[in-house]
Structures are given as structure tokens and as C-alpha cells.
Design a protein that fits this description.
Layout lengths: L1 H24 L8 H13 L4 E5 L3 E7 L7 E7 L26 H17 L7 E7 L8 H7 L10 E12 L3 E3 L2 E4 L2 E9 L3 E2 L9 H19 L6 E11 L5 E2 L2 E10 L2 H21 L3 E10 L2 E3 L1 H15 L4 E3 L9 H5 L4 E9 L19 H18 L2
Parallel strand pairs: 3-4, 3-5, 5-16, 6-15
Antiparallel strand pairs: 1-2, 2-4, 6-16, 7-14, 8-12, 8-13, 9-11, 10-12
Helix pairs in contact: 1-3, 1-9, 3-9, 5-6, 7-9
Length: 395
């Protein structure tokens, strides 16, 4: 079976590259992936794989049934949306949509899943159980396409016994994959803060209530709160990435300042507690200085936990398929992923696909305007994805 999968992957590789480049050249933003959805559906029809459309408008769920399909079900997920970034790569398949780019590798995830689906469909008489393949919209934007699909019943009829997904990883060389059992990625909440004061001439501050000064105190105090109240054994990050005054100049104190930031952790109890503490601190500090504060928290993705037993099995299957030297252990990350919603519902494994190549100067990080991959990674990944699914179904 392993040898046969590798042979089929080799045959499909040129077609998968074509799919990837077409998707890359035609990126669409979160929850706007209408043409991408049509393209995926057209390929699935060519492959004669049954699927349903319209999940959260643009999502697709495909089903590949082996022998005794009700015996066990594994779900495979690929995200399909792009980012609001203008691509600077000079490649033939550069984005045709100005200001939109597959800078997080979702084009890779989608084409990989199509390739894996083609392999699984060809071998469906050779394994037992069902493979449910989820092409998911809106990973990059709250509330996250995963949360919407779950509400629509994507984890029902049939309910998966487990779910897998991969993600490109430029720091890891093409040809390798990485796993992390247990907690892997942080929760992520968005903070929107409005500090209100009383503007006026900067030369006579005694007649004003300075929202810029209040904001600076709030930011410092919030950082102290996190550093002093968070469990030192549980990583926590609080960062503000945007500060704007409404009006203001070198000699004009504005009436209002707006702050935007992110709060991330691995502890749900602390997460809830921190929300209350941050809001209370900011509001009270602004009030004590004569101003007002509106502190809004957009509740984002939960932390992502890889089921330890499932992930250890996946590491073993990957080592069998690739060789032990090609499978590495990953550190925890403060980045977030809406795959975490699935991981809260069923045993899950989210792993990394090496896509970097220093010799080819393919080193740019995700979410940058020069992100790209060593496409040889797809030859490995389509076979590996199919192999992992079949091996798990046989357990």
C-alpha cells in the first residue's frame, strides 16, 4: 500500500502543482471564496467524488467511502481563504487579484487535499471506513469558518472519530514534517479600546483631559497585570499593534484615542479571568485620570490541543512513510488557528509541512508579501495525507 501510494502521488504531482498555481493566482478573502469553491467542486466532479456545497456559503464537504463505511470515520480539513496582502513575488502564478494573496499557504492546503482525495478515492476498495474531507472558508477572520461549520453540523452524520490538518511551515525544510502532542497553539482574542478625554491646545494641558497620556498609562498597567498575574508556567502574550488618535497634532491634544491589540494564552480559566481584570483596570484608570474608557474584547479562537494518543500515532505513521529523520518535534506557538474549534470537539492532530528551501532562497515567512514554497513538498504531502488517513482507519 505504501509503495502504491507513493507511486500514485508521483503520477498526480504535476496535476497538483497546476491546481496549486491556479488557486494561488486567484486568491479570495475570507468568506468570499466563491470562485475557489467552484474550482474545488469542479475538480471533485472530475474525480467523481461526491460532495456537498454551501457550507458557510463557500465551504465544501466531500465523502470517500471505503468498505464497511460506517465502521470508522476520519475527517481531513483544508482552509481555502487568502489574506489582504499585495504579492511581490515575480512568478508566473502571481496573484491576479490586487491586494489579495495566498500568503498563508491555504492554496497549498487546498491542492494537497485535492491530491490526497484523488489517492484515497482510487484506493477506496482497499480500506475500511469513511474519509470526510472539509474544504473550509474563513480561517483568517473571526469568528472563524471552523466555528460556523461546526454549528452547521460538519462534525455530524457521520461524526468523525478524529480529524487531521496540516499547515505549511517555511522554517522547516521541504521533505520534513513536524508534530507536537498536547497543547500546541494559543487562544487569540482581539482587543478594541477607546479612551476618551477632552482635547485642546497642547500648550495649556491643564485645561484638557489628555487621552494619549491616559492610553500610555493603560498600556503600561495592562502589561504589568499580565506579567504579575499570569501563571509563569503558562505562556501569555498581550500586544498592542495599533494606536490612533481621533484628531490631534503636535500642538493639539485630541478628544479620543483608539487602541487595538491581541491577548493570547493556553489557559481557558486564566483567559476568562484576564478579560475581566483588563477591562476593569483600563476603565478605572481612565476614570481616575478624568477620562473614560470603552474596552471591547472580541472573543477569538480557543487554544489548539493535539490529542496526545492520536498525535503519537500520526508521528509513528509519518516516520514509517518518510523515515524517522524526516519527522521532528515542534515547540508550542503563540500563534492561533481556528482548527482549534475542531480540537475542542473531537480528537485532533494539527501538524506542520516543511516548505522552505534555503538553497532556492525560499525562506519568507507566512503572512508576508514574498511568501512562497518549495513545491516538491506537495509530492510528499499528498501521499502522506492519504497514508495517515488510511493507517488511522485501520486501527
Amino acid at each position: 500500500m505504501k509503495k502504491e501510494i507513493k507511486q500514485i502521488a508521483s503520477e498526480l504531482f504535476p496535476q497538483v502543482i497546476e491546481w496549486r498555481r491556479t488557486i494561488h493566482a486567484n486568491p479570495e478573502l475570507s468568506f468570499e471564496e466563491y470562485q475557489t469553491s467552484k474550482y474545488i467542486s469542479a475538480i471533485l466532479k472530475q474525480l467523481k467524488i461526491k460532495h456537498t456545497k454551501g457550507w458557510a456559503k463557500t465551504g465544501i464537504v466531500a465523502m470517500i467511502k471505503g468498505k464497511n463505511p460506517s465502521s470508522k470515520t476520519i475527517a481531513l480539513r483544508a482552509d481555502i481563504d487568502a489574506l489582504p496582502i499585495t504579492e511581490k513575488n515575480k512568478v508566473a502564478y502571481k496573484s491576479k487579484n490586487e491586494g489579495v494573496m495566498h500568503a498563508c499557504g491555504h492554496d497549498v492546503h487546498t491542492s494537497n487535499m485535492l491530491g490526497a482525495a484523488a489517492i484515497l478515492n482510487r484506493l477506496k476498495d482497499r480500506f475500511e471506513g469513511t474519509v470526510k474531507i472539509i474544504f473550509q472558508p474563513g480561517e483568517e477572520k473571526l469568528p472563524g469558518g471552523a466555528s460556523l461549520l461546526i454549528k452547521e453540523g460538519v462534525l455530524k452524520n457521520p461524526k468523525p472519530d478524529s480529524i487531521l490538518a496540516l499547515h505549511v511551515h517555511p522554517p522547516l525544510a521541504a521533505g520534513k514534517v513536524g508534530f507536537r502532542p498536547g497543547t500546541y497553539m494559543a487562544s487569540a482574542d482581539e482587543l478594541y479600546v477607546t479612551v476618551k478625554g477632552k482635547g485642546g491646545h497642547a500648550a495649556v494641558p491643564q485645561g484638557n483631559i489628555d487621552p494619549i497620556l491616559i492610553s500610555s498609562h493603560i498600556i503600561t498597567a495592562l502589561q504589568q497585570l499580565v506579567s504579575r498575574r499570569a501563571n509563569p508556567n503558562m505562556p501569555t502574550v498581550l500586544s498592542f499593534g495599533k494606536i490612533n488618535s481621533v484628531g490631534g497634532a503636535t500642538n493639539v491634544i485630541p478628544n479620543e484615542v483608539k487602541l487595538e491589540g491581541t491577548f493570547r494564552t493556553f489557559d481557558e480559566t486564566w483567559r476568562k479571568q484576564a478579560h475581566k481584570l483588563m477591562k476593569k483596570l483600563a476603565e478605572n484608570m481612565a476614570k481616575s485620570m478624568g477620562g473614560e474608557c470603552e474596552f471591547t474584547i472580541a472573543h477569538g479562537y480557543p487554544f489548539l490541543k493535539n490529542n496526545e494518543q492520536l498525535t503519537h500515532r500520526m508521528q509513528s505513521y509519518a516516520s514509517d512513510y518518510l523515515g524517522k529523520s524526516k519527522v521532528v518535534e515542534l515547540p508550542r506557538r503563540m500563534t492561533s488557528e481556528d482548527f482549534s474549534f475542531y480540537s475542542q470537539q473531537v480528537p485532533a492532530c494539527f501538524f506542520r509541512l516543511g516548505t522552505g528551501n534555503i538553497k532556492k532562497k525560499i525562506t519568507s515567512s507566512v503572512h508576508t508579501d514574498t511568501f512562497n514554497i518549495d513545491e516538491s513538498a506537495l509530492k510528499l504531502s499528498i501521499g502522506l495525507t492519504a497514508w495517515l488517513a488510511i493507517q488511522e482507519l485501520s486501527q
